[in-house]
């Protein structure tokens, strides 16, 4: 009988030890789970996809409109939101949408319709539109090795303001949906040199520096824009003004 009691007592002790060990493991597991949850909570980053970039908000506050809300077929690739530009620097940051004053935006939509009525597979591709004056100052300073008189052929003097700074100018090309490439205009966007000058096209053709096809492609863009009321400039095939600088200053506030 005594021997049986000893055996029963031994098993009781074993059960108590096992119970304590199991409880400790459960507590440790609960603690680990709680800690892990806390770690996960601490490392979660919430991204607000609807947040509007500061520069874009400034344009909205000044009454400018997103051109793609007027014509969704217009394509946009803001070159100054990339490093693929003459300063090799992203100066627009998170801005990816093109904004203009209401009337110039409507004129651009008209040019888009004119283009597509003749060339259904072509689209306008915008490289730049409204530009803050602060960026204009940066561009002007980066060309400080060029005499101011010549420099103004490429970048408007910020002291006077560019028509871009008033939301009334646009830089663009024509995109071919069939080839999925922009048309060959003979130079890249932002090319500084005679090849980019519309007034020298006939001369460049005679010298073999531009082809008939390249000039014809420029005319496709130019005809659509001019029929919509835009004005070309002499030094850049891609640049068009909706109105004069004087009229822009009269009608609109400069974008700072």
Report on the structure:
The structure is a single chain. The model is unreliable at 1-14 and 16-47 (pLDDT under 50). The protein has 256 residues and is of the alpha+beta class. It is globular, with a radius of gyration of 32 Å. Helix 4 (102-118) packs across helix 8. Strands 2, 4, 5, 6, 7 and 8 form a 6-stranded mixed sheet that branches. The chain starts with a helix and ends in a 5-residue tail after the last helix. The protein has helices spanning 2-43, 54-61, 67-70, 102-118, 133-142, 148-151, 201-206, 212-227, 245-251, and strands at residues 65-66, 75-76, 99-100, 122-128, 169-176, 181-182, 231-232, 239-241. The protein has a domain at 54-185 and 217-231 and 238-251: 2-Layer Sandwich (Muramoyl-pentapeptide Carboxypeptidase, domain 2).
Record the SSE blueprint:
Blueprint: H1 2-43, H2 54-61, E1 65-66, H3 67-70, E2 75-76, E3 99-100, H4 102-118, E4 122-128, H5 133-142, H6 148-151, E5 169-176, E6 181-182, H7 201-206, H8 212-227, E7 231-232, E8 239-241, H9 245-251
Parallel strand pairs: 2-4
Antiparallel strand pairs: 1-3, 4-5, 5-6, 5-8, 7-8
């Amino acid at each position: 009988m005594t021997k049986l009691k000893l055996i029963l007592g031994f098993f009781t002790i074993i059960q108590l030890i096992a119970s304590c060990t199991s409880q400790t493991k459960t507590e440790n597991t609960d603690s680990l789970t709680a800690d892990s949850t806390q770690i996960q909570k601490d490392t979660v980053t919430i991204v607000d996809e609807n947040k509007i970039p500061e520069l874009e908000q400034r344009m909205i506050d000044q009454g400018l409109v997103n051109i793609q809300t007027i014509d969704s077929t217009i394509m946009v690739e803001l070159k100054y939101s990339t490093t693929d530009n003459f300063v090799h620097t992203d100066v627009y940051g998170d801005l990816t949408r093109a904004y203009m004053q209401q009337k110039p935006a409507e004129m651009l939509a008209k040019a888009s319709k004119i283009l597509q009525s003749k060339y259904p597979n072509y689209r306008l591709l915008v490289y730049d539109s409204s530009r803050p004056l602060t960026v204009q100052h940066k561009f002007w300073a980066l060309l400080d090795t060029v005499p101011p008189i010549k420099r103004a052929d490429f970048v408007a003097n910020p002291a006077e303001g560019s028509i871009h700074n008033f939301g009334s100018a646009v830089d663009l090309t024509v995109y071919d949906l069939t080839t999925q490439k922009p048309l060959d205009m003979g130079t890249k966007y932002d090319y500084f040199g005679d090849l980019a000058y519309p007034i020298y096209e006939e001369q460049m053709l005679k010298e073999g520096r531009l082809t008939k096809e390249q000039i014809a492609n420029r005319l496709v863009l130019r005809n659509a824009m001019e029929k919509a009321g835009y004005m070309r400039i002499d030094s850049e095939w891609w640049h068009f003004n909706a109105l004069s600088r004087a009229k822009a200053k009269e009608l609109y506030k400069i974008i700072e």
